[in-house]
Amino acid sequence: MNESRYALGYSEDEAHRLTRQAAFFEDLTADVLRRAGIGPGMHVLDLGCGVGDVSLLASRMVGQSGAVLGIDRAASSVETARRRAGTMGAGNVRFEIADLETFNSAEMFDAVIGRLVLLYQPDPSATLRRFRNFLRPDGIIAFQETDIETSSQVPASETFSRVRSWILAGFKTGGAELNMGSRLLSTFLNAGLPRPTMIAASRVESGPDSQAYASMAQIVQSLLPLLERTGTATIEEVAIDTLADRLRQDAVKNESVTFPPRLVGAWSRLPESK
User: Fold this and answer.
1) What are phi and psi of 9, to 5 degrees?
2) Counts of helices then strands in the chain (DSSP H, E)
3) Torsions phi, psi of 3, nearest 5?
4) CB of 31 within 8 A of CB of 13?
5) pLDDT tens digit string along 216-252?
């Protein structure tokens, strides 16, 4: 992904956050990949793989007769992904350092996939147009993106509303497309791809044991250097050490329902001959 547009940074804390986020959304992502047709024996290319979660998920879906290549421009992320794959004994997945704008390979793939990567691209349609060249005839292209502005809470606490505003401001200032999920249709069509099938899903969270509060706080933690730099929020104002607990306490006190941003999946299949 374009590093200058990735406002969350590449710290060790951010790597851990990505892993926790992946677990939070894994069933929703697996559903999109299954619907798209990812299955045993396929060779899959995962764009902007980060610390490897979607690649590892796909590797389980394609099995030992298949293979997955995850690419990311951040060397630290690729190193973490390789270490995780080794620990898990995932021999059918490999990771490479590569920029999406310059990646090249003689290898052809049955599917190109990605999650939460197009929102950071300056021209998402150009990205898809470029990577369709690495697909075999009848190949699948499948992406899952988010509409960040759809996050909400009912009834919304003052703390939740403030945190939501910080997150929106951080992503917007960093140059990300806030509602990339809603743009997937036009992105696919402008890339010259067949009209995609699409589905949207969201978790619905409540109660003291929900992961939603920690998830929001962790996003703010990764955005905090940018929020400080732009004068959006101060360290004292954020009080990151207690932020998740304050979000939890308010939600429990008010019996609030928290809706994380919806995830939109889109996939299409190339014609049998290009």
Assistant:
1) 80, -175
2) 9, 9
3) -60, -35
4) no
5) 999 999 899 999 999 999 999 999 999 999 999 999 9
